[in-house]
């Protein structure tokens, strides 16, 4: 199998097959495109012509390079055309029957040294290889859509795969400008194995009517920096495809997190598979269109709501990074802010932190020195909550400890005037428990800001069963005035973002525990294959392993799902004091704290 893989056949010229063919042709390979549909072959050629013309317009390739690439791509309708290929990549329909039929037919056509790669993202490569006359040459080569743009390629070995075959396709992937990641054979591999569990939970969250589709998607885009929300991504991938992947994952893991949400079955069986059908979680302008159009579930912008209460002054309780960040946000928006800490000294330090942040904004040209001075002048530091006696909105950002928060809310209840809104920034504790510490639970609500508060646009607005309509409207109106995006959710552990984010992080830890893939490969897979701004282990070390473990315990305690139990490795690292960047060591070691 010592071959440069200079001639490659691609079987199946759908979106993925066409994309792979383009990548190969532009990288100098002779590409044989095979599809039983003449229309699919025609569309593949047209797609390559269009995309290479666009590349010329943008100065990425020359006219001559475009002509050469087009000349290297030929299409056929018979597998016999693959006879001289060094590598065959099949990307036909995601079913064992279809793929095994192709592999058996290729056994009779290609040379014994030809490598056979399956593009499956859900099926067992071992099972496909075992059905071949030469299982040692069969492996997985999982590209991500769109193949020309996405850098990740998962190279999947079975126990039957020859090392030479793996080496050959790994070298090819690098030559194509891709980042190959070596993984073992299990459903979903690395990227989809982590991604689809998260997507499934988002579908379940929507199905339970916990939050709207728009709020779930906005929360994950703005709270985690993801390029797409989970429900929009399911529509792009195809709801039928997602269901197939999850079925395969559940068959192996028996983890309830992988059991496809019933809504996925309902939508796929109704033919509502997402963008390709014109309707899935959202409705699209036409089948294949990416333009979302209004439907019966689209919220009305002009919907009448209970009027909110006037808010002119805001109290922020706390002296940490979150408290000073929230105070800065309100002051920038023109509110008078009382910043209360346990002592005047701590309050003064918190205001000094705000001054440094504003100075950086001036240095970067984001605000004038005059605006900085005006903003800072609106912040009054104090060592006593008594100064909250006249605020219209009190926001606490103290330690994430229920007893501490309940004690604080009992004090706010005594200090704040009637009608003042009392908000907690908790990320994992029950808001209603804070509300019950007061004599006015109808005035208590959650306002979960994200760190750093001045930069992050999302605020989760957490309404309890006791929160009044007027308080809910007040907080949403305030969020708009401080230029944040509010999303509504109920009072349950994790709200939207943490309830979806931390099980994904926990599952990544389990992958490492099981020696399925390395930290570096998992981080690379999620950044390159999922579009995540940080890999899961990078993020865990930034958030803090102790914080992550605490949130995971809260989720497990509330939902009682065995799949949400904290990974033992996470617990061991926390017990050892390896908490991430703040201690110099977490999943990785750092030069300094």
From TrEMBL:
InterPro entries: 3-OHacyl-CoA_DH_NAD-bd, 3HC_DH_C, 6-PGluconate_DH-like_C_sf, 6PGD_dom2, NAD(P)-bd_dom_sf. Pathway: Lipid metabolism; butanoate metabolism. GO terms for molecular function: 3-hydroxybutyryl-CoA dehydrogenase activity; NAD+ binding. GO terms for biological process: fatty acid beta-oxidation. Residues 188-284, 494-590 form the 3-hydroxyacyl-CoA dehydrogenase C-terminal domain. It comes from the Bacteria. The keyword Oxidoreductase applies. Coiled coil: none annotated. Residues 7-185, 314-491 form the 3-hydroxyacyl-CoA dehydrogenase NAD binding domain. Pfam families: 3HCDH (PF00725), 3HCDH_N (PF02737). Keywords: Oxidoreductase. Belongs to the 3-hydroxyacyl-CoA dehydrogenase family. NCBIfam families: PRK07819.1 (NF005875). This is 3-hydroxybutyryl-CoA dehydrogenase.
């Amino acid at each position: 199998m010592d071959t440069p893989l200079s001639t490659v056949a691609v079987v199946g010229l759908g979106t993925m097959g066409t994309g792979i063919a383009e990548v190969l042709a532009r990288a100098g390979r002779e590409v044989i495109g095979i599809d039983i549909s003449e229309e699919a072959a025609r569309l593949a050629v047209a797609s390559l012509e269009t995309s290479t013309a666009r590349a010329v317009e943008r100065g990425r390739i020359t006219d001559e390079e475009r002509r050469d690439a087009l000349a290297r791509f030929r299409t056929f309708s018979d597998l016999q055309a693959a006879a001289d290929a060094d590598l065959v990549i099949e990307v036909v329909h995601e079913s064992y029957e279809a793929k095994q039929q192709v592999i058996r037919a290729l056994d009779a056509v290609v040379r014994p040294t030809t490598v056979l790669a399956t593009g499956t993202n859900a099926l067992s490569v071992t099972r496909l290889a075992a059905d071949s006359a030469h299982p040692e040459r069969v492996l997985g080569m999982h590209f991500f859509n769109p193949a020309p743009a996405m850098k990740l390629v998962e190279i999947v070995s079975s126990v039957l795969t020859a090392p030479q075959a793996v080496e050959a396709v790994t070298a090819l992937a690098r030559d194509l400008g891709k980042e190959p990641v070596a993984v073992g054979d299990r459903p979903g591999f690395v990227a989809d194995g982590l991604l689809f569990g998260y997507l499934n939970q988002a579908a379940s969250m929507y199905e339970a009517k916990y939050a709207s589709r728009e709020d779930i998607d906005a929360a994950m885009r703005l709270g985690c920096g993801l390029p797409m929300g989970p429900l929009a991504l399911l529509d792009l991938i195809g709801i039928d495809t997602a269901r197939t992947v999850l079925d395969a994952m559940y068959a192996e893991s028996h983890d309830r997190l992988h059991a496809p949400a019933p809504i996925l079955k309902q939508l796929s069986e109704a033919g509502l598979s997402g963008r390709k059908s014109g309707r899935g979680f959202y409705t699209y302008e036409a089948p294949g269109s990416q333009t979302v159009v209004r439907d019966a579930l689209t919220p009305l912008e002009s919907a009448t709501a209970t009027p909110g209460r006037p808010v002119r002054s805001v109290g922020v309780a706390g002296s940490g990074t979150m408290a000073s960040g929230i105070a800065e946000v309100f002051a920038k928006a023109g509110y008078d802010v009382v910043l209360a800490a346990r002592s005047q000294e701590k309050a003064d330090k918190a205001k000094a932190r705000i001054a440094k942040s504003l100075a950086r904004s001036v240095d970067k040209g984001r605000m004038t020195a005059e605006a900085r001075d005006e903003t800072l002048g609106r912040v009054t530091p104090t060592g006593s909550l008594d100064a909250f006696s006249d605020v219209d909105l009190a926001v606490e950002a103290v330690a994430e400890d229920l007893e501490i928060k309940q004690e604080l809310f009992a004090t706010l209840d005594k200090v704040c005037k009637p009608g003042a809104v009392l908000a907690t920034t908790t990320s994992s504790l029950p808001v209603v428990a804070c509300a019950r510490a007061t004599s006015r639970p109808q005035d208590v609500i959650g306002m979960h800001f994200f760190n750093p508060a001045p930069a992050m646009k999302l605020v989760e607005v957490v309404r309890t069963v006791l929160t009044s309509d007027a308080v809910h409207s007040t907080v949403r109106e305030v969020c708009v005035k401080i230029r944040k995006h509010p999303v509504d959710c109920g009072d349950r552990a994790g709200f939207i973002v943490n309830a979806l984010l931390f099980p994904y992080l926990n599952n990544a830890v389990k992958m490492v525990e099981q020696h399925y893939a390395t930290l570096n490969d998992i981080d690379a897979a999620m950044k390159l294959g999922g579009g995540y701004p940080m890999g899961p282990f990078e993020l865990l070390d930034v958030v803090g392993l102790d914080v992550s473990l605490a949130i995971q315990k809260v989720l497990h305690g509330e939902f009682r799902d065995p799949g949400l139990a904290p990974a033992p490795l996470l617990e061991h690292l926390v017990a050892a004091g390896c908490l991430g960047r703040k201690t110099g060591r977490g999943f990785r070691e750092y030069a300094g704290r």
